[in-house]
Amino acid sequence: MNNLDKLDSYIDKNLDKNLEELKRYVSQPSISAQKLGLKECAAMVKEMLEKRGFTAEVMATDGAPVVFAERKGKSDKTLLIYNHYDVQPPEPLELWESPPFEPEIRNGKMYGRGVSDDKSHLTARLHAIDAILEDEGELPCNIKFIIEGEEETASEHLHDYISKNLDRLKADACIWEFGGVDHRDKPVQYLGLRGICYVELSVTSLGTDVHSGLGGSILPNAAWRLTWALASLKGVDERIRIPGFYDDVISPSARDRELMDALPEVADEYLTRYGAKGFIKGLTGGTDLKIEEVFVPTCTICGLTSGYQGAGSKTVQPAFASAKVDFRLVPNQMPQDILKKLRAHLDAQGFSDVKIEFLGGEPAARTNPDDPFVKMVVDTAEDVYDAKMEVVPMIGGSGPNYPFVHDLGLPVVTMGHGYPDTKAHAPNENIRIDLYVQHAKHMVRVIKEFSK
Amino acid sequence: MNNLDKLDSYIDKNLDKNLEELKRYVSQPSISAQKLGLKECAAMVKEMLEKRGFTAEVMATDGAPVVFAERKGKSDKTLLIYNHYDVQPPEPLELWESPPFEPEIRNGKMYGRGVSDDKSHLTARLHAIDAILEDEGELPCNIKFIIEGEEETASEHLHDYISKNLDRLKADACIWEFGGVDHRDKPVQYLGLRGICYVELSVTSLGTDVHSGLGGSILPNAAWRLTWALASLKGVDERIRIPGFYDDVISPSARDRELMDALPEVADEYLTRYGAKGFIKGLTGGTDLKIEEVFVPTCTICGLTSGYQGAGSKTVQPAFASAKVDFRLVPNQMPQDILKKLRAHLDAQGFSDVKIEFLGGEPAARTNPDDPFVKMVVDTAEDVYDAKMEVVPMIGGSGPNYPFVHDLGLPVVTMGHGYPDTKAHAPNENIRIDLYVQHAKHMVRVIKEFSK
Prior knowledge:
The structure is a homodimer. Chain A is of the alpha/beta class. The two termini of chain A are 21 Å apart. In chain A, strand 4 (104-106) and strand 5 (109-111) form a beta hairpin. Chain A has two domains: 3-191 and 367-451, 3-Layer(aba) Sandwich (Aminopeptidase), CATH 3.40.630.10; 195-249 and 296-362, Alpha-Beta Plaits (2-Layer Sandwich). Helix content of chain A is 37%, strand content 22%. The longest helix of chain A is centred in the N-terminal third of the chain and has 22 residues, at 115-136. In chain A, strands 1-2-6-3-7-19 form a six-stranded mixed beta sheet. At the A-B interface, strand 10, strand 11, helix 6, helix 7 and helix 10 of A face strand 10, strand 11, helix 6, helix 7 and helix 10 of B.
């Protein structure tokens, strides 16, 4: 039995115990949007790391605390692993087949809020570390963990934390919180994340709701004001109408197009999975769809609320209305700049009554697809997955990789066990346990190869 | 002591007992929009009428039952009294100072959902009948009650019920469910009601909510589709853009303008009461504001719902979005016609994905302000209120007066104890007990005068 076989065998044999730890971790609600269970969850994470001989610390920020942990290893090289212990809100609850905070294994999958995004990514990595420690008694390189509690609310205080802890976080490379496989189970290397600017737009038009028989004729309606303000941001052509919004956008390079072109076709898969009749912007598939998915900024209504929303009819004119809106940003758009342009646009359009609350943001950032660390992670995957890792130069989601790339100067790679039906951010979020095991095995290879 | 003094004195002396009956009636939830407590409430109403020697019957419809009751009197003339036992939903609950279904008297007011609209209007009328019966041992004319349970959801089945019971409902005149005084406590005669067409517009764009990092770029967003569809109905100029919407509108007559002009100025009062900075459409007050309030049809968003509406941010693209929308109609607009035009407009604008659910409607109807019955009600008010009753040719609210006016051929008058701060349809709905007593005394005079 060679050394890797031995480590793989440890991962297989000790899986149940490790999954019990994951269940315990998922059972602890930790909803950053609702500031629920965050301290408790941070304490649990600290304990999980200390169990592996890490020096761990729960460090205060102006928001949820960050758990920082490190353990020295044989070589001088340092690997930084980024995860988050917070999860998305579980609503709508009625669509869950099992309660979101009572993780359950069914048909080779574990279900629960945050199980995929990204609690299992931490435990899979700890499982790999357990295997190495069992075999070697020590780590082959220094490993640091930075595990934050506000990733699902745009990591409001992470950039500040990193700026203040540059020495502590010094490393040679970084492994990102998540990763995954495509619809053919092929591993994927996601190399860049879009930025985000998340706002709540709200209007208070009256001191009180009013009978619509009166209000509708002569008084300002908050829901109408909001509707018109939203419609001024983007029309059916999907073009964002905020002046200057596209000014700083960097178009994809020839190399980006080449990499996107090499990725498998996704159109039919998407339509089936998401129950859509078609795409927007007249897209049908191919490289155009793939480019649109990640290299173009967006403006998305994530939620609307106003007035009566119960059964049947209520004839009331609402005094208040609000919308959750996210803008996905591409290099080099900056959230604060977009915020300023949004305010200027609303004012210019006559919507100075629309209040903007900034709920978080971060700029986009990318890692060079030709970095040697990227190449090593891609190469080691083949042994585990029996398939070449696809290299995706940028993805549509967002995350706080900007300070890792620009403040810490690290190449950032993604690896993990997300898969197309993982339902992150949606009811019945789940992981496939076979993929979870593969991720742990890939981690073992990356740690060992990196340490050389 | 003359006869009227004796009746008034009965009303004053037996007020507490009567208010206890009202409290019991308000304590029974009867929310038509949520189909809650309707049967129980109808049974309670039947019992209240039987207590006064009426023959009462709970009659099934395709919706909530109608309570019909009658008692013969000395003269051949028949007075029909229309009320409803259903109430608006109590939400938002957190804004109530006392629970909506636990009526409470504070500072000369009774608070509770439905106390004003219109449970107290029934009990005040029963109080007047009690006084007459106590004094005369019988009624001076025939009195019929029709008390429905779907007024707050646009009286969906009432027109059908009336069409099928024309003989049973035969009468000489009709007293409407409500009425009231203006901000100077002067009684007001409201002679017409606008119609209504209430719809829920909804969009289902996907089979499931999707992470906004993916969905926002390429998949249809239900909230955006709804926003754009709504914005196509009406712009900031408040002009409704549905082709043909204004075709059947009858402009106010010279007599209408004369009556509206005679009404007191309301502008400052409205702005203060509803906490508004100004009116829409550039209105500032005067006859223009009063005309706009009732003689012009409207399109009001009563509610919006989509995606995530909790605290903080959730990055999700909603698969579903819906809006409650009411159109207030004026003579001669017909709800079914407006519905057809709305569908045609949405289709023509590319919004065939927007589903329309019709939640109820009724056409506008008016009573001739120069009808002798109107004159008698106006004249008898002076004795109670020490003020001339204002005659308002039409009001902004809606109600099912169309079948009373057009199928039964009755003059319909309003009288009651609503007042500007009564908060119908809003939290802390209430009545002023002094006005309640005045309404009962006015009822006594109307019944006696009518019987002559």
